[in-house]
Amino acid sequence: MSVKTQRTREICALAPIVPVLVIDDAAQARPLAEALVAGGLPALEVTLRTPAALDAIRAMAAVPGGVVGAGTLVTPEDVRAAKEAGAQFGVSPGATDALIAACEAEGLPLLPGAATASEAMRLLEQGYDMLKFFPAEASGGAPALKAIGAPLPQITFCPTGGVSPSNARDYLFLTNVVCAGGSWVAPKNMVLGGDWAGIESLAREASKLMD
Question: Has 132 been annotated as catalytic?
Answer without folding.
Answer: yes
